[in-house]
Design brief:
- The protein is an alpha/beta fold.
- It folds into two domains: 162 residues; 77 residues, no CATH class.
- It contains twelve helices and six strands.
- Strands 1-2-3-4-6-5 form a six-stranded mixed beta sheet.
- The longest helix is centred in the first third of the chain and has 21 residues.
Length: 274
């Protein structure tokens, strides 16, 4: 992934950079990741650095060369597909938005976006393959979209604070999550490019890859708890019976359920920091 070197970034327009030579476009990311940049190109450089780190760790892990050991060959094939996608010159877009959605990041799918998808409005700003990142959510900045009542009752802000938040410096309350492992976040989004969607009924490879390859969840601080969830995720990714049936969705769905793997995400969520 040497072509994703921040040194290869070229300015292509107002707030737009291209990672030459592979045509990865970065748009509007001047304030990635935490609204603390002073140079206009800094955000795109950070983003590219995080993406490259995510791909390095993620692809190595899926190929069975990471510290978590060999996974089922099905995942090696997913790594291969993702690598092909990045080698391809087809344009790929990473776009940043500021306080425009509830999600931290979303990715397009080769299946397209349904118009009733709550994220349709942001996702249509990028073609496939594309990722939209909300720097307010990454940085843990309180949204400016709520009404005064919500700020008073929910966030316990005084009138002067509400005015400052709306028109001055937006607040970053300590209890709003600030994304730590951004490499993991970006890798997660690129996995969606392969057509893998979140599901409770079918194996959720995107979530499993994140948990196994990136050491648990960004929403859990305790290292021992994170390690346990990562090990569970990797064990699922090594299950021969489950992944040998990857092309038999019905059979695979039954195994996923019978082995109790469908409870993995809920268990991990139960361990999220308060
Ligand atoms: Zn996702």
């Amino acid at each position: 992934m040497h072509e994703l070197d921040p040194a290869n970034l070229v300015r292509s327009g107002e707030g737009e950079y291209v990672a030459a030579p592979n045509g990865l476009q970065i748009v509007g990311c001047d304030q990635y990741p935490d609204h603390g940049n002073t140079k206009p190109e800094a955000g795109s450089q950070w983003l590219l650095t995080d993406l490259r780190a995510g791909l390095d760790t993620g692809l190595q892990c899926l190929s069975g060369l990471g510290p978590m050991g060999r996974l089922h060959p099905y995942h090696e094939y997913q790594a291969h597909r993702l690598m092909r996608l990045f080698e391809d010159r087809e344009p790929k877009t990473l776009r940043c938005v500021k306080d425009a959605m509830f999600a931290t990041a979303v990715a397009t799918s080769p299946k397209g976006v349904a118009t009733d998808d709550p994220l349709y409005r942001v996702l249509r700003q990028v073609g496939h393959p594309g990722i939209v990142i909300d720097t307010y959510r990454v940085a843990g900045i309180l949204s400016r979209q709520y009404d005064d009542q919500t700020y008073r009752d929910f966030f316990h802000l005084a009138e002067a604070q509400i005015i400052e938040h709306r028109y001055g410096q937006p607040l970053r309350p300590a209890n709003l999550h600030r994304y730590q492992d951004r490499a993991s976040l970006l890798f997660h989004e690129t996995v969606h490019w392969l057509g893998h969607e979140h599901s409770a009924i079918y194996p959720d490879v995107t979530s499993l890859y994140e948990a196994c390859c990136f050491g648990g969840s960004d929403y859990i601080t305790d290292p021992a708890i994170n390690r346990a969830h990562a090990e569970t995720a990797c064990a699922i990714l090594k299950d021969d019976t489950l992944w040998s049936n990857a092309y038999h969705p019905y059979r695979q769905m039954r195994i996923w359920h019978l082995k109790g793997y469908d409870r993995f995400k809920a268990r991990m969520r139960a361990d999220f920091d308060p």
